[in-house]
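$ ./design --mode recover --in tokens.txt
reading tokens...
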């Protein structure tokens, strides 16, 4: 199962893909194997997406230009050398009027009818009628426009030819006029129905997405409540017993060394209880980011109470670091010191934190253990270094860890600051609370980098 840190640092970057689900933000998110929040893992590239958006913005302009071009080609195709000048004038007016068919559909039909009746602009009148039917449906204006287009096809120009034609030709012209007037109306109604269907489908998809988010929020709230109960009932109880036993041991023994160890155990237990109480309170809230996040300024207290001989060196300004960066530094040092205490027998350790103009460097190096590992029997999940690597990757940093030349161990992490010093100040809870509740802070850092 992925680390809870993916919830802290947002949803845009993952370093592990297990195909599972992770509770983060206000929804249950799927890892990259299935997309995040229903978005496919294969995304459209930036240039292609921008090109598609630009084409969508100018789609109407392209369609209108194409309609005018088709109507102009129709006039040119039916060019008659013996036509009068007014025939060409009416046809040109009908073609040019199509540029305003979306804004004044009925007026454009009225302007194209003379060009169809006494000119050669049949397609212009049909296109204008289809646009009117698409916008007004079967309104009175649509019926009037359809009748005018039918009459323009049925009645020939000049009028003298009408009386010279046989009745069979009139019947044929009437039927063909119904086709010429009915086809644009049918296409316009079909296009309108398609738009309505697309809008309904989009509305249904949005409604289902809202329902999914509400359901995911409810699942997330139940999971947080369950975790809070478990931590309060089990972990807090055990840590309280440790603190009480340490206090009793401090009073019962007379050895100064034993009293010092008992004081250290009691202090660490009390600090752990405080963090657990804050974590439980955070898990019981909705936002998950109400508690303050440990910062670099608290490293001296952490190093002093680490239980190992350690020295700390901090160079550069650390007061105005972004909360995600500062919290990640604190947790990195905390995890490294814990590993030294568990796996290196409390070997001497040096902690270096250096803030430069464009990056922050952290290095924790311990010497080779001189004696047996006193805490080798302590349980370990084996996820410490993996979690540190995830922290660094989710903040666009780099993480390295491995044995040093002198037989010790070295942990180093570098966080970029050139695009991160936006002083966002978004805080997350301490401990696991910080890992589950500061997604907005790191997301703001990444958005600042992208800008």
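writing sequence...
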């Amino acid at each position: 199962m992925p680390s809870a840190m993916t919830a802290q640092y947002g949803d845009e970057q993952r370093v592990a893909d297990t195909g599972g689900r992770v509770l983060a933000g206000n929804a249950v998110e799927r890892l990259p194997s299935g997309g995040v929040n229903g978005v496919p893992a294969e995304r459209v590239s930036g240039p292609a997406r921008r090109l598609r958006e630009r084409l969508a913005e100018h789609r109407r302009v392209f369609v209108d230009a194409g309609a005018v071009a088709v109507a102009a080609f129709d006039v040119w195709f039916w060019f008659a050398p013996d036509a009068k000048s007014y025939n060409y004038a009416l046809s040109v007016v009908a073609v040019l009027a199509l540029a305003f068919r979306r804004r004044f559909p009925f007026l454009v039909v009225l302007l194209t009818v003379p060009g169809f009746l006494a000119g050669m602009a049949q397609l212009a009148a049909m296109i204008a009628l289809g646009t009117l039917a698409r916008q007004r449906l079967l309104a009175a204006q649509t019926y009037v426009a359809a009748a005018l287009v039918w009459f323009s096809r049925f009645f020939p120009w000049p009028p003298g030819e009408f009386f010279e034609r046989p009745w069979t030709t009139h019947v044929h012209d009437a039927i063909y006029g119904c086709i010429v007037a009915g086809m644009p109306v049918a296409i316009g109604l079909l296009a309108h129905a398609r738009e309505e269907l697309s809008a309904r489908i989009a509305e249904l998809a949005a409604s289902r997405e809202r329902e999914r988010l509400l359901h995911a929020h409810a699942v997330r709230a139940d999971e947080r409540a369950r975790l809070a109960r478990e931590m309060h009932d089990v972990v807090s109880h055990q840590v309280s017993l440790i603190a009480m036993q340490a206090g009793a041991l401090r009073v019962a023994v007379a050895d100064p060394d034993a009293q010092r160890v008992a004081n250290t155990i009691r202090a660490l237990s009390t600090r752990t209880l405080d963090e657990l109480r804050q974590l439980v309170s955070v898990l019981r809230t909705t936002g998950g980011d109400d508690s303050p996040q440990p910062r670099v300024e608290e490293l001296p207290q952490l190093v002093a109470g680490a239980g190992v001989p350690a020295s700390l060196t901090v160079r550069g300004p650390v007061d105005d670091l972004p909360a995600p960066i500062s919290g990640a530094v604190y947790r990195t040092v905390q995890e490294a010191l814990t590993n030294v205490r568990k796996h290196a027998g409390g070997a001497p350790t040096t902690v270096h934190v250096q803030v430069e103009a464009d990056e922050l460097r952290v290095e924790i190096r311990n010497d080779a253990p001189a004696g047996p590992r006193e805490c080798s029997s302590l349980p370990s999940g084996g996820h410490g270094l993996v979690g540190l690597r995830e922290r660094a990757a989710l903040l666009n940093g780099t993480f390295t860890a491995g044995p040093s030349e002198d037989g010790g161990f070295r942990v180093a992490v570098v966080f970029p600051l050139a695009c991160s010093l936006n002083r966002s100040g978004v805080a997350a809870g301490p401990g696991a609370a910080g890992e589950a509740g500061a997604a907005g802070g790191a997301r703001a850092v990444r958005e600042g980098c992208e800008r």
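exit 0
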